[in-house]
Amino acid sequence: SGGSDEQSKQVLDDLADVDMSALPYEKITDDPHYRLAMVTAGDVVERLVIIAVTDPDPDIRTAVLSSLDPVFDEQLASNDNLRLLVMAMHDEIFEIRDMATQVVSRLAARNPSYAMPALRT
């Protein structure tokens, strides 16, 4: 458990160092470096979502969910990530449930088949 907490805190520290303004906002489909960056970003986002649902420390879960900015929506809207975010909507901590619901609501336009049923309940 201690190793998991240290890894989670390291991921959060690394995320805090990311310069959001440096992330590409326009798709450059011809550039293989862009595609690699998006795959890498997708992997990082997926790991963050897993931490947001599974970390035993509610402060870590809260910090991760609060870091899921709209710049990551393309990756967050994947079926797997949405499934995990829906799980976070049932967290024992109200603040976490509320943040997860806000993220899922924001993603509903990108992937309504996964988001809308969860938002109806």
The biggest sheet, with number of strands, parallel, antiparallel or mixed sense and barrel status, is:
none
Overall pLDDT, averaged? 81
Distance between the termini: 33 Å
Question: Looking at the structure, what is the overall shape?
Answer: flat
Radius of gyration: 15 Å
Number of strands: 0
Low-confidence stretches: none
Q: Helical content, roughly?
A: 55-70%
Describe the structure.
Helix 2 runs antiparallel to helix 3, helix 2 runs parallel beside helix 5 (79-88) and helix 6 (94-107) packs across helix 7 (112-120). Helix content is 69%, strand content 0%. The longest helix has 23 residues, at 32-54. It is flat and about 35 Å long. It is mainly α and 121 residues long.
In short:
The chain has 121 residues and is mainly alpha-helical. Helices cover 69% and strands 0% of the residues.
Question: Helix and strand layout, with pairings?
Answer:
Layout: H1 2-16, H2 32-54, H3 58-66, H4 73-76, H5 79-88, H6 94-107, H7 112-120
Helix pairs in contact: 2-3, 2-5, 3-6, 5-6, 6-7
Keywords for this entry:
mainly alpha; flat; 121 residues
